[in-house]
Amino acid sequence: MSGRTWGASAPAKVILLGEHAVVFGKPAVSVAIGLRLRCKIRPAAVSSLNGVPLTPQNYSYVSACLARHGAPPTAVLTDSDFPSGSGLGSSAAVTVALLAALNASKGDLKEDVVAREAFEVECEVQGRASPIDTSTCAHGNGILVQRQRGDGFLWEISMDTRRWCVHDLPVPKMTLVIGFTGKSKPTGPLVAKVKRYVDHTTFARDIVSEIGDVTMEGVKQMAQGDLEGLGRTMTKDHKLLAILGVSTRELDKMVSSVLPYSYGAKLTGAGGGGSMVALTDQPQKVMEIIKNKGGQPFAADTGVPGVRIE
Ligand code: MEV
Q1: What are the Cα distances from residue 221, in Å, to 36, 117, 228?
Q2: Hey, which of 14, 17, 20 would you mutate to test ligand 1's pocket, going by the most ligand atoms within 8 Å of its Cβ?
Q3: Is the CB–ligand 1 distance for residue 86 below 6 Å?
Q4: Are 247 and 274 in the same domain?
Q5: Where residue 241 sits, what CATH number does that domain have?
Q6: Which regions in the chain score pLDDT beneath 70?
Q7: Structural domain of residue 140, as residue ranges?
Q8: pTM for this prediction
Q9: Final residue of a structural domain among 171, 195, 221
Q10: How many A from CA of 191 to the centre of ligand 1?
Q11: Residues 190 and 265 in one domain
Q12: Which is the closest atom of ligand 1 to the Cα of 271?
Protein backbone atom coordinates (compact mmCIF):
# COMPACT_ATOMS: atom_id res chain seq x y z
CA MET A 1 0.00 0.00 0.00
CA SER A 2 3.23 2.09 0.21
CA GLY A 3 2.20 4.77 2.72
CA ARG A 4 -0.26 6.61 0.53
CA THR A 5 -4.04 6.86 0.45
CA TRP A 6 -6.05 4.96 -2.16
CA GLY A 7 -9.70 5.52 -2.90
CA ALA A 8 -12.50 4.04 -4.96
CA SER A 9 -16.25 4.40 -5.25
CA ALA A 10 -19.08 2.05 -6.23
CA PRO A 11 -22.77 2.65 -6.98
CA ALA A 12 -25.85 1.40 -5.16
CA LYS A 13 -27.91 -1.24 -6.97
CA VAL A 14 -31.61 -1.88 -7.40
CA ILE A 15 -32.74 -5.38 -8.30
CA LEU A 16 -35.60 -5.07 -10.79
CA LEU A 17 -36.40 -8.78 -11.00
CA GLY A 18 -35.30 -12.13 -9.65
CA GLU A 19 -33.87 -11.62 -6.14
CA HIS A 20 -33.77 -14.73 -3.95
CA ALA A 21 -34.49 -17.02 -6.92
CA VAL A 22 -31.07 -16.00 -8.31
CA VAL A 23 -29.40 -17.63 -5.29
CA PHE A 24 -30.83 -20.92 -6.64
CA GLY A 25 -29.33 -20.25 -10.08
CA LYS A 26 -32.36 -18.53 -11.66
CA PRO A 27 -31.94 -15.30 -13.68
CA ALA A 28 -32.02 -11.79 -12.18
CA VAL A 29 -31.89 -8.22 -13.48
CA SER A 30 -30.39 -5.30 -11.63
CA VAL A 31 -29.36 -1.71 -12.33
CA ALA A 32 -26.74 0.54 -10.79
CA ILE A 33 -28.17 3.87 -9.62
CA GLY A 34 -26.72 7.33 -9.14
CA LEU A 35 -26.07 7.03 -5.39
CA ARG A 36 -22.48 6.11 -4.53
CA LEU A 37 -20.37 4.82 -1.70
CA ARG A 38 -16.81 6.14 -1.51
CA CYS A 39 -14.02 4.31 0.28
CA LYS A 40 -10.46 5.35 1.19
CA ILE A 41 -7.67 3.23 2.65
CA ARG A 42 -4.34 4.10 4.24
CA PRO A 43 -1.82 2.21 6.37
CA ALA A 44 -2.45 2.53 10.13
CA ALA A 45 -1.38 1.05 13.48
CA VAL A 46 -4.59 -1.05 13.68
CA SER A 47 -7.27 -1.90 11.14
CA SER A 48 -10.44 0.14 11.55
CA LEU A 49 -13.61 1.25 9.78
CA ASN A 50 -14.42 4.94 10.17
CA GLY A 51 -12.27 5.05 13.32
CA VAL A 52 -13.78 1.92 14.96
CA PRO A 53 -11.19 -0.87 15.36
CA LEU A 54 -12.12 -4.10 13.56
CA THR A 55 -12.92 -7.10 15.77
CA PRO A 56 -14.15 -10.60 14.89
CA GLN A 57 -17.67 -9.38 15.84
CA ASN A 58 -18.00 -6.28 13.66
CA TYR A 59 -17.69 -5.23 9.99
CA SER A 60 -17.14 -8.74 8.68
CA TYR A 61 -17.18 -7.66 4.99
CA VAL A 62 -14.32 -5.19 5.61
CA SER A 63 -12.26 -7.73 7.61
CA ALA A 64 -12.82 -10.38 4.91
CA CYS A 65 -11.61 -8.01 2.13
CA LEU A 66 -8.45 -7.05 4.07
CA ALA A 67 -7.72 -10.70 4.94
CA ARG A 68 -8.17 -11.79 1.34
CA HIS A 69 -5.54 -9.28 0.21
CA GLY A 70 -3.20 -10.04 3.14
CA ALA A 71 -3.33 -6.28 3.80
CA PRO A 72 -1.23 -4.75 6.60
CA PRO A 73 -3.21 -2.89 9.33
CA THR A 74 -5.39 -0.48 7.38
CA ALA A 75 -7.65 2.44 8.20
CA VAL A 76 -10.77 2.22 6.00
CA LEU A 77 -12.94 5.32 5.65
CA THR A 78 -16.32 5.24 3.92
CA ASP A 79 -18.91 7.81 3.07
CA SER A 80 -22.17 6.93 1.39
CA ASP A 81 -25.08 8.65 -0.37
CA PHE A 82 -27.44 5.85 0.73
CA PRO A 83 -28.25 4.17 4.07
CA SER A 84 -26.74 0.82 4.98
CA GLY A 85 -29.19 -2.06 5.32
CA SER A 86 -31.56 -0.37 2.87
CA GLY A 87 -31.63 -3.19 0.32
CA LEU A 88 -29.64 -1.00 -2.07
CA GLY A 89 -26.45 -3.01 -1.83
CA SER A 90 -24.45 -1.18 0.83
CA SER A 91 -22.43 -4.29 1.74
CA ALA A 92 -21.82 -5.08 -1.93
CA ALA A 93 -20.77 -1.46 -2.61
CA VAL A 94 -18.40 -1.31 0.37
CA THR A 95 -16.91 -4.70 -0.59
CA VAL A 96 -16.47 -3.69 -4.24
CA ALA A 97 -15.02 -0.22 -3.47
CA LEU A 98 -12.65 -1.58 -0.82
CA LEU A 99 -11.43 -4.43 -3.03
CA ALA A 100 -10.94 -1.94 -5.88
CA ALA A 101 -8.83 0.31 -3.62
CA LEU A 102 -6.80 -2.73 -2.45
CA ASN A 103 -6.27 -3.90 -6.05
CA ALA A 104 -5.36 -0.36 -7.17
CA SER A 105 -2.80 -0.10 -4.35
CA LYS A 106 -1.10 -3.12 -5.96
CA GLY A 107 -1.14 -1.38 -9.33
CA ASP A 108 -3.89 -3.40 -10.94
CA LEU A 109 -7.63 -2.79 -11.30
CA LYS A 110 -9.89 -4.92 -13.45
CA GLU A 111 -13.67 -4.72 -12.99
CA ASP A 112 -14.22 -8.44 -13.49
CA VAL A 113 -11.48 -9.37 -11.00
CA VAL A 114 -13.06 -7.07 -8.40
CA ALA A 115 -16.56 -8.42 -9.20
CA ARG A 116 -15.42 -12.03 -8.77
CA GLU A 117 -13.50 -11.32 -5.54
CA ALA A 118 -16.44 -9.35 -4.13
CA PHE A 119 -18.83 -12.23 -4.84
CA GLU A 120 -16.49 -14.65 -3.05
CA VAL A 121 -16.26 -12.31 -0.03
CA GLU A 122 -20.06 -12.00 0.04
CA CYS A 123 -20.48 -15.79 -0.04
CA GLU A 124 -17.94 -16.18 2.76
CA VAL A 125 -19.64 -13.60 5.00
CA GLN A 126 -23.29 -14.16 4.05
CA GLY A 127 -23.18 -17.96 3.83
CA ARG A 128 -25.08 -18.14 0.53
CA ALA A 129 -25.25 -15.51 -2.19
CA SER A 130 -25.48 -14.88 -5.92
CA PRO A 131 -23.24 -12.50 -7.92
CA ILE A 132 -26.11 -10.07 -8.75
CA ASP A 133 -25.36 -7.40 -6.10
CA THR A 134 -21.58 -7.38 -6.34
CA SER A 135 -21.44 -7.53 -10.15
CA THR A 136 -23.89 -4.60 -10.45
CA CYS A 137 -21.78 -2.49 -8.05
CA ALA A 138 -18.62 -3.49 -9.95
CA HIS A 139 -19.78 -3.12 -13.58
CA GLY A 140 -22.54 -0.48 -13.27
CA ASN A 141 -25.35 0.14 -15.81
CA GLY A 142 -27.65 -2.91 -16.14
CA ILE A 143 -26.73 -6.49 -15.24
CA LEU A 144 -28.42 -9.74 -16.22
CA VAL A 145 -27.29 -12.88 -14.44
CA GLN A 146 -28.46 -16.14 -16.00
CA ARG A 147 -27.37 -19.75 -16.33
CA GLN A 148 -26.38 -19.65 -20.01
CA ARG A 149 -24.13 -17.24 -21.95
CA GLY A 150 -25.83 -14.66 -24.17
CA ASP A 151 -25.29 -11.18 -25.66
CA GLY A 152 -23.21 -8.87 -23.48
CA PHE A 153 -21.51 -11.76 -21.65
CA LEU A 154 -18.88 -10.55 -19.14
CA TRP A 155 -17.77 -13.51 -16.99
CA GLU A 156 -19.13 -16.61 -15.29
CA ILE A 157 -18.82 -18.54 -12.07
CA SER A 158 -20.11 -21.94 -10.90
CA MET A 159 -20.80 -23.27 -7.43
CA ASP A 160 -22.10 -26.83 -6.78
CA THR A 161 -24.80 -27.32 -9.48
CA ARG A 162 -25.41 -23.58 -9.89
CA ARG A 163 -23.87 -21.48 -12.65
CA TRP A 164 -24.17 -17.74 -13.12
CA CYS A 165 -23.14 -15.97 -16.34
CA VAL A 166 -22.90 -12.23 -15.75
CA HIS A 167 -23.99 -9.98 -18.66
CA ASP A 168 -24.04 -6.30 -19.41
CA LEU A 169 -27.74 -5.51 -20.09
CA PRO A 170 -28.87 -2.44 -22.06
CA VAL A 171 -31.37 -0.49 -19.95
CA PRO A 172 -34.17 1.54 -21.58
CA LYS A 173 -34.73 5.11 -20.40
CA MET A 174 -36.92 4.79 -17.32
CA THR A 175 -37.70 6.53 -14.04
CA LEU A 176 -37.32 4.59 -10.81
CA VAL A 177 -38.32 5.77 -7.36
CA ILE A 178 -37.11 3.94 -4.27
CA GLY A 179 -38.87 3.87 -0.92
CA PHE A 180 -36.75 2.90 2.10
CA THR A 181 -38.85 1.60 4.99
CA GLY A 182 -36.20 2.72 7.51
CA LYS A 183 -35.97 -0.87 8.76
CA SER A 184 -33.00 -3.08 7.97
CA LYS A 185 -32.70 -6.84 8.06
CA PRO A 186 -29.42 -8.59 7.30
CA THR A 187 -29.50 -10.52 4.01
CA GLY A 188 -27.94 -13.77 5.26
CA PRO A 189 -30.83 -14.92 7.52
CA LEU A 190 -33.45 -14.07 4.84
CA VAL A 191 -31.54 -16.07 2.22
CA ALA A 192 -31.28 -18.96 4.72
CA LYS A 193 -35.02 -18.76 5.48
CA VAL A 194 -35.91 -19.06 1.78
CA LYS A 195 -33.47 -21.97 1.42
CA ARG A 196 -35.21 -23.87 4.27
CA TYR A 197 -38.60 -23.24 2.63
CA VAL A 198 -37.34 -24.42 -0.77
CA ASP A 199 -35.62 -27.49 0.72
CA HIS A 200 -38.86 -28.53 2.42
CA THR A 201 -41.64 -27.80 -0.06
CA THR A 202 -42.27 -28.31 -3.76
CA PHE A 203 -44.56 -25.29 -3.54
CA ALA A 204 -41.61 -22.97 -2.72
CA ARG A 205 -39.50 -24.63 -5.43
CA ASP A 206 -42.30 -23.86 -7.92
CA ILE A 207 -42.42 -20.22 -6.79
CA VAL A 208 -38.66 -19.91 -7.31
CA SER A 209 -39.05 -21.35 -10.84
CA GLU A 210 -41.91 -18.97 -11.54
CA ILE A 211 -39.76 -16.00 -10.45
CA GLY A 212 -37.19 -17.22 -12.98
CA ASP A 213 -39.84 -17.27 -15.76
CA VAL A 214 -41.21 -13.86 -14.79
CA THR A 215 -37.66 -12.43 -14.86
CA MET A 216 -37.09 -13.66 -18.42
CA GLU A 217 -40.43 -12.11 -19.43
CA GLY A 218 -39.15 -8.80 -17.99
CA VAL A 219 -35.86 -9.11 -19.91
CA LYS A 220 -37.84 -9.33 -23.18
CA GLN A 221 -39.99 -6.34 -22.16
CA MET A 222 -36.85 -4.30 -21.37
CA ALA A 223 -35.40 -5.11 -24.78
CA GLN A 224 -38.63 -3.90 -26.42
CA GLY A 225 -38.72 -0.75 -24.24
CA ASP A 226 -42.13 -1.95 -22.99
CA LEU A 227 -42.24 -0.14 -19.64
CA GLU A 228 -45.92 -0.94 -19.03
CA GLY A 229 -45.21 -4.64 -19.47
CA LEU A 230 -42.06 -4.45 -17.36
CA GLY A 231 -43.98 -2.71 -14.57
CA ARG A 232 -46.68 -5.43 -14.59
CA THR A 233 -43.93 -8.05 -14.42
CA MET A 234 -42.28 -6.31 -11.46
CA THR A 235 -45.61 -6.27 -9.58
CA LYS A 236 -46.07 -9.99 -10.35
CA ASP A 237 -42.57 -10.63 -8.99
CA HIS A 238 -43.46 -8.76 -5.77
CA LYS A 239 -46.44 -11.07 -5.23
CA LEU A 240 -44.23 -14.14 -5.69
CA LEU A 241 -41.61 -12.77 -3.27
CA ALA A 242 -44.38 -12.11 -0.74
CA ILE A 243 -45.47 -15.77 -1.05
CA LEU A 244 -41.84 -16.77 -0.34
CA GLY A 245 -42.19 -14.84 2.93
CA VAL A 246 -39.67 -12.03 2.38
CA SER A 247 -42.06 -9.07 2.16
CA THR A 248 -43.49 -7.17 5.15
CA ARG A 249 -46.78 -5.42 5.77
CA GLU A 250 -45.02 -2.05 5.34
CA LEU A 251 -43.48 -3.05 2.00
CA ASP A 252 -46.82 -4.45 0.78
CA LYS A 253 -48.57 -1.21 1.79
CA MET A 254 -46.00 1.03 0.11
CA VAL A 255 -46.15 -1.08 -3.05
CA SER A 256 -49.95 -1.08 -3.26
CA SER A 257 -50.25 2.65 -2.54
CA VAL A 258 -47.88 3.70 -5.33
CA LEU A 259 -49.36 1.29 -7.91
CA PRO A 260 -52.10 3.71 -9.16
CA TYR A 261 -49.27 6.10 -10.18
CA SER A 262 -46.75 3.52 -11.42
CA TYR A 263 -46.26 0.97 -14.20
CA GLY A 264 -45.35 -1.43 -11.39
CA ALA A 265 -43.66 -1.75 -8.01
CA LYS A 266 -42.00 -4.36 -5.85
CA LEU A 267 -39.70 -4.91 -2.92
CA THR A 268 -36.05 -4.82 -3.97
CA GLY A 269 -33.16 -6.76 -2.46
CA ALA A 270 -33.48 -9.26 0.35
CA GLY A 271 -36.72 -7.79 1.81
CA GLY A 272 -37.80 -8.23 5.45
CA GLY A 273 -37.72 -4.38 5.55
CA GLY A 274 -35.24 -2.54 3.36
CA SER A 275 -36.69 -0.88 0.24
CA MET A 276 -39.25 -1.07 -2.54
CA VAL A 277 -38.87 0.28 -6.06
CA ALA A 278 -41.48 1.75 -8.38
CA LEU A 279 -41.22 2.14 -12.15
CA THR A 280 -43.21 5.27 -12.87
CA ASP A 281 -43.77 8.34 -15.04
CA GLN A 282 -45.04 10.29 -12.01
CA PRO A 283 -41.98 10.34 -9.73
CA GLN A 284 -43.05 13.37 -7.65
CA LYS A 285 -46.42 11.80 -6.79
CA VAL A 286 -44.81 8.46 -5.93
CA MET A 287 -42.20 10.15 -3.72
CA GLU A 288 -44.96 12.05 -1.91
CA ILE A 289 -46.89 8.83 -1.24
CA ILE A 290 -43.79 7.04 0.05
CA LYS A 291 -43.17 9.94 2.45
CA ASN A 292 -46.81 9.85 3.62
CA LYS A 293 -46.45 6.15 4.34
CA GLY A 294 -43.46 6.90 6.60
CA GLY A 295 -40.81 5.85 4.07
CA GLN A 296 -37.74 7.68 2.78
CA PRO A 297 -38.02 8.30 -0.98
CA PHE A 298 -35.08 8.49 -3.40
CA ALA A 299 -35.21 9.28 -7.10
CA ALA A 300 -32.83 6.89 -8.85
CA ASP A 301 -30.90 7.69 -12.03
CA THR A 302 -29.86 4.71 -14.12
CA GLY A 303 -27.10 4.40 -16.73
CA VAL A 304 -24.37 5.03 -14.16
CA PRO A 305 -20.82 3.62 -14.13
CA GLY A 306 -19.60 0.86 -11.84
CA VAL A 307 -16.53 0.90 -9.64
CA ARG A 308 -14.16 3.87 -10.14
CA ILE A 309 -10.81 4.87 -8.69
CA GLU A 310 -11.26 8.23 -6.97
C1 MEV B 1 -29.99 -9.34 -2.10
O2 MEV B 1 -29.78 -8.02 -2.58
C3 MEV B 1 -30.30 -10.26 -3.22
C4 MEV B 1 -30.51 -11.73 -2.82
O5 MEV B 1 -30.96 -12.41 -3.98
C6 MEV B 1 -29.25 -12.37 -2.29
C7 MEV B 1 -28.19 -12.61 -3.35
O8 MEV B 1 -28.49 -12.66 -4.54
O9 MEV B 1 -27.02 -12.80 -2.94
C10 MEV B 1 -31.61 -11.85 -1.78
Answers
A1: 28, 32, 9
A2: 20
A3: no
A4: yes
A5: 3.30.70.890
A6: 1-2
A7: 6-171
A8: 0.97
A9: 171
A10: 7
A11: yes
A12: 10
